[in-house]
Amino acid sequence: MTALDVLTRVSAQADTEPLIRWIWITDHVDEIVSRGLQHVYLTVVAVVIGFLIAFPAAVLASRHRWAVSPITSISGVLYTIPAFAFIFLLLPITGLSLTTVAIPLIAYTLLILFRNTLSGLDSVDPDVKEAALGMGLSRRQLLWRVEVPLATPVIVAGLRIATVSSIALITIAALIGRGGFGQFILDGLDTFFWTPLIVGVVLSVALAFLADILLLGLQRLMTPWAKAAGVRAVAT
Amino acid sequence: MNGLLEGLQWLVDPANWSGVDGVPARVWEHVQLSLISLAIATLIAVPLGLWIGHTRRGQFWTVQLANLGRSIPSLAILSIAFLLVVKLAPANHQELAFGFLPTIVALTLLGIPVILINTYVGVQQVDPDSVEAARGMGMSGGQVLWRLEVPLAMPLIMTGLRLAAVQIVATAGLAALIAGGGLGRYIVDGFALRENDRIVAGAILIAVLSLLTDAVFSLLAKATAPRLTSSGRASAPARIDVARGEVTPPT
Question: Which residues on chain B are in Cβ contact (under 8 Å) with A230?
Answer without folding.
Answer: 250-251
